[in-house]
Design a protein that fits this description.
The structure is a single chain. The chain is of the alpha/beta class. The chain is about 25% helix and about 20% strand. The protein is globular and about 50 Å long. The termini are far apart. The C terminus is likely disordered. The chain binds zinc ion (2 copies). The site of one zinc ion (ZN) has 8 residues, from loops.
């Protein structure tokens, strides 16, 4: 049995304004608490921090981004973890989405520097990693959509041309035990964005999931549906985004995290959501609770006690929760 911690979109935890009197646990402490549960591997689906994006935008300075990475406590905590980290970069790390210049802070050179400097991190972008009986392959950054349109976010054909052929060449056993790690979700699977009120996942990633039916598909990027899982045929799909964003009709703060138990000889996958302590004090605070949705029955995160419907119901059926964020 292999126990894996999956997290993503750590960047949202740093920019939130907590309610008065509540101190937010720093992101590195949060990660420390999570990794203390000891795992065989840690999977991260991108969007580590916003500084690469921000610094790069204002200064376009690679050396400044390097300095920020070197002094980032989250990166060093993960680098010192007992279990290896497998990751892909997200669009806020890559800094290409909104880019109007030719220089990008996270160039291939910088990516190379990072994995040499931080040896516990295994970059999965178009690279196969064997982790016990399981094969991990990833694809970084996000697909181009009308929400994320400019810069170097990839065209759909890129993942089709670059990821699919690598998977095709795997042995049948590797395909069966495959974990696909991407920042962006597959189209139609936990990819409903509150920003544009539409699905924004990748069509060709979905085709890969449909055709190869990997064991697990881990992704983030669409914060609205962080903390949800869904089967797509045989494939357990997991959206592990953080909930740092204020979204249309409710607000959630926190980091979603999952522990998955995999056995190469069994089709059964145990997926459990961990709710890390996000607030410094132990006061009961209605920022997120997990319970059954009155619409679909699924076990889901809720921002308020009085909310009846989970985000998937809200998104797909246009149901309004009775209380709105503005009343808080
Ligand atoms: Zn994100
Ligand atoms: Zn993202």
């Amino acid at each position: 049995m292999t126990k894996i911690l999956v997290i993503s979109d750590l960047h949202q935890g740093t920019s939130i304004t907590p309610p008065a009197g509540i101190r937010v646990v720093t992101q590195d402490r949060l990660i420390e608490n999570l990794i203390a549960r000891s795992h065989d591997a840690i999977l991260i689906a991108g969007d580590f921090q916003d500084y690469m994006w921000n610094e790069g935008k204002s200064t376009k300075s690679v050396s400044l981004v390097k300095k920020r990475i070197e002094s980032d406590p989250v990166i060093s905590t993960l680098n010192n973890a007992d279990s290896p980290v497998y990751f892909v970069w997200g669009n806020t790390d890559i800094m290409d989405c909104e880019k109007e210049t030719t220089e990008t802070p996270l160039t291939d050179e910088l990516r190379g520097w990072f994995t040499t400097e931080f040896s516990n991190f295994n970059d999965c972008h178009k690279q196969i990693h064997q982790m016990s009986d399981f094969t991990i392959i990833g694809y970084q950054d996000a697909n181009k959509t009308d929400i994320y349109s400019s810069g170097k976010c990839w065209e759909e054909t890129a993942i089709h041309k670059e990821l699919r052929p690598i998977i095709e060449k795997l042995s049948n056993e590797q395909k069966k035990q495959l974990i696909i790690l991407t920042h962006t979700p597959p189209r139609g699977i936990l990819d409903f964005s509150s920003l544009g009120s539409r699905h924004i996942g990748s069509f060709y990633l979905r085709e890969i999931i449909d055709d190869f039916q990997p064991k697990v598909s881990v992704f983030g990027h669409v914060h609205y549906l962080g903390g949800y899982t869904k089967y797509c045929g045989r494939t357990q799909c997991i959206n592990v985004s953080s909930f740092g964003l204020a979204v249309s009709h409710d607000i959630l703060f926190g980091q979603s995290a999952f522990e998955i138990l995999l056995d190469s000889k069994s089709e059964e996958i145990s997926t459990s959501m961990i709710v890390p302590h996000y607030w410094e004090d132990k006061k009961k605070h209605a920022f997120v609770e997990y319970r059954s949705c009155q619409g679909c029955g699924r076990y889901a995160p809720f921002a308020r006690r009085q909310f009846k419907y989970c985000r998937i119901c809200l998104g797909s059926r246009r149901i309004q929760n009775q209380e709105t964020a503005s009343k808080v």
